[in-house]
Amino acid sequence: MFMLSFPAAAFATNCYVVATAPGQECLVVDPGIGVVDTLRSVFAEHRLRPAAVLLTHGHLDHVFSVTPVCRDAGPAYVPTFIHGDDRYRLENPVDLLSPDLKAMFIQQFGRDGWQEPADVKTIADGDSVQIAGIDLDVRHAPGHTEGSVMFGMDAIANGVPGELDRTMFSGDVLFAGSIGRTDLAGGSTEAMTDSLRDVVLPLADSTLVLPGHGPATTMKRERATNPYLQGLTQ
Predict the structure, then answer these.
(1) Which of 160, 178, 196, 200 is deepest in the core (most CB within 10 A)?
(2) d(C-alpha 102, C-alpha 148), whole Å
(3) Which residues form the Metallo-beta-lactamase domain (predicted)?
(4) What's the rounded Cα separation, in Å, for the pair 229 and 201?
C-alpha cells in the first residue's frame, strides 16, 4: 500500500494520500489549508489520479482545499465523503469560526473563493467506502465535532513494521499522547469519553494510528501511555 503524508500550511493538519501503488487512483484524506500545490506535485511525481476525498470531520483546517482538489481531478468532480452530522460545515466553514479566529483567518488567507464541493456523499457509522481498490470502514466517534469519524483499513504502508496489520485515520479523535479538544462548537466532553471507550479502546494493538495532527503512533502505545485512555474500561 502506498501512503504519503505532509502538513498543511496552517495548523499543521496532516493531509494523507493513499493508493494501492504508484500510478493508480488514490484517496486524499483531509486536504487542509494550502495543500493544493503540494498535492499536484505528489500526483505528478507518483502518477496518481484522485478518486475521492475523505474528511474525518468538517473543521476548516481539514476541509479548506477539498473543492479545488475535487475539481482538479479531471473532467468530472470526484466525490467528497463526510459524516452526515458534519455535512452542514461544508456550506461555509469560515463562517463557523469564532469571531477572533475568523478575522485572523480572513486577514491571512482571504475569504473569497469558498465553494462547496459539487458531489458530497454522507456516510454513517459502520459504512464501507470502496474506491480506488481500497476498502475502508467508517467509525463514528463524536466529541471533537458531532460528525467526527475514523477511517480504518486492513492494510499498512509499505515499510511499516510487520507487527502492525491495520491502519486507522483518526482525525482529531486520537493523537499521539492526546486527543482532540472538545470546547469548540459541536464538541462534547461526554461524547468524546464515550467515543474513546467504545470506539478507540477496542482497536487492536496492531493498529497504526495516523492522526489529524502530529506524528503517527500505534494503538499499543496509546493504550499504554495516553493519559486520556487511562481508567477507561470497555
Answers:
(1) 200
(2) 22
(3) 12-213
(4) 8
Residue 228 in grid coordinates: 486520556
At position 227, the amino acid (one-letter code) is P
pTM exceeds 0.85, yes or no: yes
Query: Where in the chain are the domains?
Result: 2-225
**Is residue 117 within 8 Å of residue 66, measured between CB atoms?**
yes
pLDDT tens by residue, 125-178: 999 999 999 999 999 999 999 999 999 999 998 877 778 999 999 999 999 999
* CATH architecture of structural domain 2-225: 4-Layer Sandwich (3.60)
Of 15-19, 21-25, 168-172, 228-232, the one with minimum mean pLDDT is: 228-232
CB atoms within 10 A of CB 131: 16
Mean pLDDT of all residues in 45-53: 96
Q: Take residue 85 and report the three cell numbers written for it.
A: 452530522
